[in-house]
Amino acid sequence: MKRSVRFFNTTGPCDPNDHYMLPPAGRLQNAQLHRYVSDKLYWSLHAPRQTGKTTFLHSWVKELNAIENVVACCVSVERCQSLVEPERAMPAICDAIREAAIKYGFPMPRTTADTGTSAVSLVSSILTNWAELVVPKPLVVLFDEVDILEREVMVSFLRQLRGGFATRGVGKFPISIALVGMKDLWEYIPDPKDGKPVINPGSPFNVKQDSVFISNFTKENVAELFAQRTEETGQQIEQAALDHVWEQSQGQPWMVNNLFMRATLRILKADNYETVTLDNIQQAREQMILGKETHLESLAYRIKDERVRKVIETILVGDSDPDLGESRGLDICQDLGLVVIEGGTPKVANPIYKEILARQISYGTQLAILEPAFRWQKPDGTLDMDTLLKEFQGFWQENSETWEEKSDYTEAFPHLLLMAFLQRITNGEGHIEREYALGRKRLDLAVEFGGSWSIIEIKLLRNRQTFEKVKAEGLKQIVNYRDIFSSSRRMKDGKKIPCYLLIFDRRSEDKKLPWEQRITWNVEGDVTVVGC
Known about the structure:
It is built from 18 helices and 14 strands. With about 525 residues, it is of the alpha/beta class. It folds into 3 domains: about 190 residues, Rossmann fold; about 70 residues, Helicase, Ruva Protein, domain 3 (Orthogonal Bundle), CATH 1.10.8.60; about 240 residues, no CATH class. The strands form 3 sheets. A 6-stranded mixed β-sheet has the order 1-6-2-5-4-3. Strands 9-10-11-12-14-13 form a 6-stranded mixed β-sheet, sandwiched between helices. The chain has a two-stranded antiparallel sheet with strand order 7-8. The model has no long low-confidence stretch (mean pLDDT about 85).
């Protein structure tokens, strides 16, 4: 069988000649693309990184230049990152415009040295000159990575575009301009006092027609993407594998392509066209998470930001925070695609991001945990969860107070220490699924090892609460979660998954019980209640 020249792309814009891809324009929400050109409108496009914005820009520019009577060009202003003075940034933007013109084979507009124009008018001047050079066709410019421009630079840039809007037309100024980045326009200009976006930045760019968002793949899109490989190579994929890709990625385009790429080129190797199985996708997922991919590493880096940390910790612990919706941290998390709002509640966007967050935040702790010396496996190879959690109780008693002093995530410290302990024990051989429940004051873990599942729920005992009340609430929640989890996994063997409710005493020191009373182990029905 002839080998396909195409593959699933995870680096840079997609090209249909080289990569399996879906037309990105189909994922633009509320867009009227050709009207923006025909009616001479300015607009913005925003979405998290690695969702297909740049792929869309290149494909649409190619389409416009092929079928419309216009000159269209995509200009990236990424080079201006960290340039905070207009006098430095505007010449850099002009250089980007000039290089884009050369790349697309269009007449090169005059640059800084040619115009003698002041720095704060350079962009307006060069765009005017460019519009003159491409007569009789009108000019369309799509500016990519615009949201990296800062404060005075952004204000100057937007004002110059707005200034040309009134005179736009053939030979005068671009008839249509798009501003593309991770943020929507209203977020472009932060308040210098607190870093939050100015709610009405209006005046620098009050000529925008639409704000367009590019969405993730749908479940059907995921199947359509792999179907292209099936058509070219004959390679099939199990339905369970497709379902797992969707479940773990929630259609995040980079993740979908990465899972497919690893399964078809690394797990099965490039010339192996056997059917892709659920096990292949699960291996690809673990490879991707452990591979320190640039996209995932950049997210891991951002969680060190205090504003992001606050949001993630609130979601992780399951607390309710009335100020969360107004926080700059939530805006950042949504811009990154790390958090989405579902049913009015902020949630981590997908299980893979949940895994990355948990592993990254607890990584240092995991390294500090010694290799287990106790017998934590049963003779059949499954986890001896009773023994493991009893060992954790001793570990918690011995280390928690000292280690917590070094933790940035003090509210979520019990959750993170337990996850680090489990990760250290299973050492990548098992599988942990995490369910963060904002506002429900709990964290659910489903732990798989050796083909057997266990469920752990974490609850915190705080001031003005009683152990019995927290326990009663936790027992209801964990049984409900077990039923939902069992149903979602279609477990029909009749066996109930073992459940463990861990309650951590987080009351102030004057209210905490002494350790000998705090460390408890009781069985309530078919749930083991573990006091820590």
